[in-house]
Write a structure and sequence with these properties.
The protein is α+β, with helices and mostly antiparallel strands. A hairpin with a 5-residue loop joins strand 5 and strand 6. It has an eight-stranded antiparallel β-barrel with strand order 2-7-6-5-4-8-9-11, surrounded by five helices.
Length: 271
């Protein structure tokens, strides 16, 4: 856990949801060292609060990402398409709650997230696929929903901060782990992903990170993680992040699984 979190005032889930649900928002992501994450929390305004549930301030997450055989979701991100999407089943490991989530792009680059409870472990049943189809259509996207299959699993521990001054949220993810369906994966021990979520202008957390010479990065748990493990995929969008933070990965940092072979991908029009 990020050590300085213990010094912040707590906020309950109900209060956090009431004040800053932010399903439509502007996201800024930062890939930082654990030391920077610790310093960030230490230097926050003393009015900042941390989500606390049953005495816990850090919670385990698992996300299973789904894509088409042509990797339409991945390519939409890699090519910077305006109409791009993500489909995942997210599990809150501490409570066991599970949701089918669909993320699309709204106006002015905002992120729109829709979700419903999931009842089939990490699988999409026909009702889930119908929901995904309608959520994508609402975002102006047509995709082959019937062919969606698990492509990548991520696991991490998350702490959530609330900033009363701006009304924004910040999440800090540590203990990051990426896993392919057949077993290959990696766990960078000293990295954290900080994500600020606001309805518009930069938050005080953004400005504090900028003062530490940290800048928002084009990083996606799904797309960047897949690009690291699949060098056959187009990944120019994430080259700076991969070169800076993942270029030294070797067999000592990868979990002990045989590499998986994939057929070359073909592009698919989903706009």
């Amino acid at each position: 856990m990020i050590g300085p979190l213990a010094g912040l005032e707590p906020i309950s889930l109900d209060d956090l949801t009431a004040r800053a649900e932010l399903l439509t928002r502007i996201d800024r992501k930062y890939l930082v060292t654990r030391a920077i994450a610790d310093r960030l929390v230490t230097e926050l305004d003393d009015r900042a609060m941390v989500l606390e549930i049953d005495g816990a301030r850090e919670f385990g997450y698992r996300s299973v990402y789904f894509d088409t055989p042509a990797l339409s979701s991945y390519l939409g991100a890699a090519q910077g398409r305006r109409r791009r999407f993500k489909v995942r089943i997210r599990t809150y490991l501490d409570s066991g709650d599970r949701f089918v989530e669909v993320k699309t792009r709204g106006q002015r680059g905002s992120t729109v997230k829709e979700r419903v409870p999931a009842w089939r472990d990490d699988r999409l049943d026909p009702d889930d696929r119908a929901y995904v189809r309608e959520a994508l259509r609402a975002g102006g996207i047509e995709a082959d929903v019937r062919s969606l299959a698990p492509v990548l699993t991520t696991e991490y521990d998350r702490s959530t901060l609330y900033s009363p001054v701006s009304g924004g949220r910040t999440t800090i993810d540590t203990e990051l782990h990426w896993q392919l369906p057949g077993g290959g994966g990696f766990t960078p021990r000293d990295l954290a992903i900080v994500e600020t979520k606001s309805t518009g202008s930069a938050s005080e957390v953004d400005r504090l990170l900028w003062s530490m010479r940290q800048r928002p990065r084009s990083v996606s748990k799904y797309a960047t993680g897949l690009a690291v493990m699949r060098p056959d995929l187009p990944s120019h969008r994430w080259h700076p992040v991969i070169r800076r933070h993942f270029s030294t990965l070797d067999r000592t940092t990868l979990t002990d699984h045989a590499p998986i072979q994939y057929a070359p991908i073909q592009q698919e029009n989903v706009s």
